[in-house]
Amino acid sequence: MIKAYCKRVLLFIPFLVAYLLSLGLCMLACIVFASEFLFENNEDSILSVACYVPDDESYTRLGLNFVKQMDSVRHTVDINIVNSEEKVVKLVESQEAVAGLIVPEGFLENMGTKESKHVSIIFRDADTYDEHMVNDLIYAMSDFLGTSQCSIITAGEYAEEIGLDITEADSIENSVLNKCYEYVMGRKSKFNKIDAEDLVEKFEVREQMTASYVLYIVMMSIFIISFFFKGNSEIFRARAMLSGIKNWKLFLLEAGCATVMMYFLYVIMFIALFITFGTLKIAALFTVIPFIMVIALAGTALCYLVKSPSTVSYITFGAGTGLMYLAGGLLPLEYMPRFFQTAAVYNPLYYLITYFMRAMFI
Amino acid sequence: MADSIVAIENVSLKYKKTVLNDVNITAGKGEVIGLLGLNGSGKSTLLTAIAGLRKPASGVIKVNGKAGFVTQENALIDELTAIDNLKMWTPMSRQEIIRDLTETELSILKVADFIDIKVKRMSGGMKKRLALASVLLSKPDILLMDEPLASLDIPAKNDIIDFIDSFKNKGGTVFVASHNEELFKHCSRIYLLKNGASILLPAGSSPAEALK
What we know:
The structure holds 2 protein chains of 2 kinds. Chain A is an alpha/beta fold. Chain A is built from 15 helices and 5 strands. In chain A, helix 8 (206-227) runs antiparallel to helix 13 (309-326). Chain B has one domain: P-loop containing nucleotide triphosphate hydrolases (Rossmann fold, 3-Layer(aba) Sandwich).
C-alpha cells in the first residue's frame, strides 16, 4: 500500500507543478499590472506627490483631502494619499510620483512642541535634493501656500467684520501672510531626506509574491489532501480493514503523503523566490516542516469528517479562496478598499503570510 | 450447524433505525445465498455485518473463514493502473498476480487483458471485474457481493455469473445482494428481506413476484 501511495504522489506531481506555474504566473501578472487598472491618472496635474498619513492623523487627512479638491491645487499637484509607507516608496521608485511625503504618527498632536515630528520626503536616487527643491517641491509647496492665502483673506475680512481699522486689518493680514511664509519656509527644516533605496529594500514586491505563493500553497495543500479522499471513503476504509490495515495507519499514510506533496510545493516556491530575490533564509526550508505536517493532518482529518470529495472542494475553494483574497494573497491589501484592509486583521491567513515572510526574509 | 461457513443467528441490525429483526440464515460450503429486497431493506447492511464491519444490535454472526467483500462502489484508485491497484492489497509480485489472473478461475474475469490500463480509463464492467479480482487475490473462503451486476453489459454480467459458479463449484460460499433475475437462477437459496424480516423463498419461485 505504501508503494502504491508513493506512486500516486509521483503521478500527481507533474500536475501540481503545471498548476503551480500557471497560477503563479497569473498572480505575478496580477501584482505587476494591478496598478495599471486600479490607479486613475490625474491628467490635469503637473506633478504627483504620494502622501502617507497614519490613521490617527485624521485631521491632517481631512485637511489634505480639502486641499486636493481646491482649484489651485488640483490643476497643478496630484496629491495621491496612499495607505502605507511602502506604497509611497513604490510610487516614487516607479516615477509615478515625483516625491513622497510620509507624515509620522502624532505629527499634528506634537506640532510646535519639543517632541515635534518630522515629515519625511522620499526621493528617487537619481534626483538630488536641490533639484527637487527647485523644480518640484517648491512648486508643490507654493500651492499649499496658496491654500494658506485663502485663509489669510478670510482672516482680513474677519478683522474688518469685527470692526478693526482697515489699516490694522491689512497689518494683521500681512503679518499672518509673513508668518505663513515663515512657517512654510521654516517647514523645510522640518523635512528629512530619506534615501528611497533603504525603504525599497524593505517593501519590495517580494513580500506580495511570497504571500501569494504561500497562500496558493495552502490552497493547493488542501486540494492535495482532497486528492486522497478516495482513501478516506468508507468503502476504501472498509476494504483496508478487511485486508488487515488499521484505519489509523491509513490515516497516517495519507497525511504523510500529503505532507510530502505540500513540502515539495513549498520547495519549488522557495527555489523560485530564491532565484528571484536571493535573500531567503535557508532555515525556512526546515522550520516549515512541522507547520506543513499540522496542515496535512488537519486536512486529512477534514476529509474523514466530510461526506464527499465535492464538500472538500467547496470548503477549500469557497472559503479558502475568499480568505486568501481578503488576506492580500491574490491582490495586495493596499489596492483594496479600506474596509478590507481593516478586515484583514481578523483573517487568520493574513497572519500566515506574515509568518512566512518573517520566516523566509526577516 | 457444524458444516456452516456462515451462521446468522437471531440477528437484529440497526442503521439509524432498525432495518433487520431476528434474521436467521446459514450457508455452507459451495452455496450461493441470494439476498433480495427493495432499496433500503437491509441487504447491504447485512453484508457489511457478515464482513464484520458492523456489529449486530443483537444476535450472533459466526463466520468460519476469510471473507472478501465486493462493494457496490469500488475501492479502486482512479489514477493507478489495474496492476497497481491489485498490488495495493496483496504482497504478491506482478508475475504472481498475473499468473493467478491467467491460470486460476480468475481468468474468467479477463483482468489480465487490461492489467496496465489506468482505472480512470476503464469502463464500468472492467472496474467491476478488477474490484472482484482485487478481493479474490486474497483467496477468501466467503465472497460477499453487493449488486455485482449493476450497470454492466451482458458479456460482463455473464463473466461474473460464470465466476460465481466457478467459485461455488470450488467450495466457496457466496452471499449476493441483487435485483438480477438471471443471477438468482444460480443461487442455492434466496432470502427475501422485507419489513425487517428474512423470508426464505421456495425453490423455483420468481423473485420479481416475491417482491410484489
